[in-house]
Amino acid sequence: MAGDNKGKVIGIDLGGTNIKAAAVTNEGKLVTKLEWATEAEQGVGHVVQRLQSIARAVASEAGWIWSDVAGIGIGIPGFLDFQAGVVERAVNIGWEQVPILDIMQRELGVPVYFDNDANAAAIGEAWVGGGRGFRHVVAVTIGTGIGGGILIDGQIYRGANGMAGEFGHMVMDWGHGHVCNCGQTGCLETIASATAMLRSARQAVERGETTALASYDTESLTTRLVIDEARNGDAVAGRIVRHAMETLGMALSYIGNALNPERIVIGGGVSKAGDVLFSPILTGFQQGALSRVQEACKIVPAELGNDAGVLGAAKLAVR
Ligand SMILES: [Zn+2]
Fold first, then answer.
1. What angle is formed at CA 12 by the lines to CA 45 and CA 20, rounded to 5 degrees?
2. Which residues of 145-177 are buried (b: 16+ CB within 10 A; e: fewer)?
3. What is the pLDDT of residue 165?
4. Ranges of the chain whose pLDDT falls below 50
5. Ligand 1 center to 119 CA (angstroms)
6. If I label 239, which of 100, 208, 267, 280 is the partner at 20 to 30 A Cα–Cα?
7. Ligand 1: centre distance to CA 187 (Å)
């Protein structure tokens, strides 16, 4: 139906390595998706061109004509000026002061919206993932670092200048531990990120601890293997994962006491690991969270995997 643009939006997840785009209905059904290399090294203009092309390509892949598209949302890995519609800085892709919304709107003739990638993923999970059906949702992603997003009464909460949801930099080990990228010492992500668990495992092996982890060479050891060995009952791997996840759970209790959410959605590559992660997370959370906060809140795994970003970006364009 030409001109019927009520139910059709496009979500784009701009990453340092890949651009993902999805054609999505305004009920959150993913119709089709594409993934292209970002080619950030070829400059800002090139990447902007690719964003425009992938938007048109995914619409046509979905069988939509362009005039059917109601809007586009983009998740961007960087600091954004929401008033001006400008990407202030996105280190991964080498962007500085790029007025992306104006450029895209002029070229494509549809409204374009953006948010940072962590907020986009949180919006996606709250819309059609682990937080679906709830209005007060916190999403936390465990990866190289720890990021997240906050939805209050169904709306993303960005804070004064877009920094809300930087959970990874809650200092959990004040004056101790590892120095973080941000310059602080003892940040949550230096303890509980996938990278941090892997580092702890390597250090345990180097110290000569008796563990199944020692049977892997340093290069082939991954966070996934550390978690698998923890599940298999290896005491050292178990200790590492438990300490990391109890600390995360304690951090979530601070967030819980501050925000009183209905769902805390845990995402990232390791989030499908089940009880070996979620049981210590719950232990930490229960130690720190007020009982009424616990009664109202369930901690659940993310459901959308790598699609959270494109779905949340698409949601930005649903009016
Ligand atoms: Zn930090």
1. 90
2. bbbbbbbeeeebebeeebebbbbbbbbbeeeeb
3. 97
4. 1-3
5. 18
6. 267
7. 5
Instruction: Report d(CA 298, CA 289) in Å as an integer.
Output: 12
Ligand 1 centroid–CA 183 distance in Å is 6
Query: Rounded to two decimals, what is the model's pTM?
Result: 0.94
- Quote the CA–CA distance of 167 and 128 in Å, as a whole number: 22
Q: Can you read off the two tokens belonging to residue 73?
A: 């949302």
| Sequence-ordered list of residues with C-beta below 8 angstroms from that of 156, at least 6 positions apart, any chain | 115, 119, 122, 123, 149, 150
At 229-243, the pLDDT tens digits run: 999 999 999 999 999
Give the distance (Å) from ligand 1 centre to CA of residue 80: 20
Phi, psi at residue 134, to the nearest 5°?
-120, 150
Element (H, E) at 198: helix 194-206
Residue 58's H or E segment, with its range, is helix 44-61
Rounded Cα–Cα distance for residues 284 and 288 (Å): 7
Pairwise CA distance, residues 5 & 7, whole Å: 6
Q: What is the mean pLDDT of the chain?
A: 96
pLDDT at position 1 is 45
Measured in angstroms, how far is the CA atom of residue 193 from the centroid of ligand 1? Answer: 11
Question: Residue 269: what pLDDT?
Answer: 86
In whole angstroms, what is the distance from residue 25 CA to residue 271 CA?
A: 27
- d(CA 223, ligand 1 centre) in Å: 20
Cα 85 to averaged position of ligand 1 atoms, centre (Å): 27
**CB contact at 8 A, 160 and 146:** no
DSSP SS3 for 251? helix
For residue 182, report the distance from its CA to the centre of ligand 1, in Å. 4
- Number of Cα atoms under 13 Å in the Cβ half of residue 86: 10
Interacting residues of 247 by C-beta distance below 8 A, sequence separation 6+: 172, 173, 188, 191, 192, 284
| Residue 189 alpha carbon to ligand 1 centre in Å | 7
If we measure between CA atoms, which residue out of 131, 144, 83 comes closest to residue 308? 131
Q: How many residues does the chain have?
A: 319
